[in-house]
């Protein structure tokens, strides 16, 4: 399946994970931990691009339930992801890792514009590229952005670091008999409504045969294992 390991990956980090136990804002401990793990992967010669969510800041759908116009709320969500990107950039650079943030919404004072060919060049030079502002379009998610960016820059997998250690047939926090899947195909994810990524993201991966690995972000050594293509969490693949 992926015994030879990946050479270039997109690591998708949920915004919620960045908040740690606080639910809101950024936990420096979490970001430091994630940055250290990414630096180990880079030291092994693996090209790592990162997409970060914004669930610790704003989610457009939630804001619109409170009465905001959906598109504007989504733009707020996208801007929130950039704050997370800058935090990760800071902790990576303290470790001596060269990074570039590229955003789908132009903000030239803080980040480069998203230019896929330039992103690839950065990766080839051993830099970590952090993609911010999702796809730059409302009604999408950062999961979908991770899948799209992975396809466009020729990554071999999307690695989704979350707060659970894989995909289960029901919520393991509510159901003690929940069963974890080692491997799934895309159709099963979609028809059973399994919580991997949203349907748009899963469909995009399915149409292009892009593997998705779901794993526990904060488990010791997990990021390195996932990035190296070791068996971890749940893999969704053709
Ligand atoms: N968002 C968007 N378009 C995109 C990516 C993100 O509109 O291409 C907005 C959307 O409102 C979303 C928010 O940004 O709720 C934060 O992203 P997401 O919910 O994917 O973050 P995560 O759940 O991974 O923390």
Automatic annotation (TrEMBL):
Keywords per UniProt: ATP-binding, Cytoplasm, Kinase, Nucleotide-binding, Pyrimidine biosynthesis, Transferase
Family assignment from sequence similarity: Belongs to the UMP kinase family.
Residues binding ATP, per UniProt: 12-15, 55, 59, 162-163, 168, 171
Name this protein carries in UniProt: Uridylate kinase
Classification via NCBIfam families: pyrH_bact
Entry's localization field: Cytoplasm
Gene Ontology CC terms: cytoplasm
EC number annotated for this UniProt entry: 2.7.4.22
Gene Ontology BP annotations: 'de novo' CTP biosynthetic process; UDP biosynthetic process
Function as written in the Swiss-Prot or TrEMBL entry: Catalyzes the reversible phosphorylation of UMP to UDP.
Highest taxon above the source species: Bacteria
HAMAP family: PyrH_B (MF_01220_B)
SUPFAM superfamilies in alphabetical order: Carbamate kinase-like
Pathway info: Pyrimidine metabolism; CTP biosynthesis via de novo pathway; UDP from UMP (UMPK route): step 1/1
């Amino acid at each position: 399946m992926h015994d030879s390991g990946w050479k270039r990956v997109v690591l998708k980090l949920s915004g919620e994970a960045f908040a740690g136990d606080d639910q809101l804002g950024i936990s420096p401990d979490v970001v430091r931990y994630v940055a250290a793990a990414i630096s180990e992967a880079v030291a092994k010669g693996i090209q790592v691009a990162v997409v970060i969510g914004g669930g610790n800041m704003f989610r457009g759908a939630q804001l619109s339930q409170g009465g905001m116009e959906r598109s504007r709320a989504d733009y707020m969500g996208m801007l929130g992801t950039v704050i997370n990107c800058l935090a990760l950039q800071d902790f990576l650079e303290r470790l001596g890792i060269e990074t570039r943030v590229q955003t789908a919404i132009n903000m030239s004072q803080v980040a480069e514009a998203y230019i896929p060919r330039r992103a690839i060049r950065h990766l080839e030079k051993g830099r970590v590229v952090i993609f911010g502002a999702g796809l730059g379009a409302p009604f999408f998610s950062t999961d979908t952005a991770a899948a799209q960016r992975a396809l466009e820059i020729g990554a071999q997998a999307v690695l989704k670091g979350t707060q659970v250690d894989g995909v289960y047939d029901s919520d393991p926090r509510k159901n003690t008999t929940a069963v974890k899947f080692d491997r799934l195909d895309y159709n099963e994810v979609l028809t059973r409504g399994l919580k991997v990524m949203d349907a748009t993201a899963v469909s995009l991966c399915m149409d292009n045969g892009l593997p998705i690995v779901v794993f526990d972000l904060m488990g010791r050594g997990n990021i390195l294992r996932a990035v190296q293509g070791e068996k971890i969490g749940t893999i969704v693949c053709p």
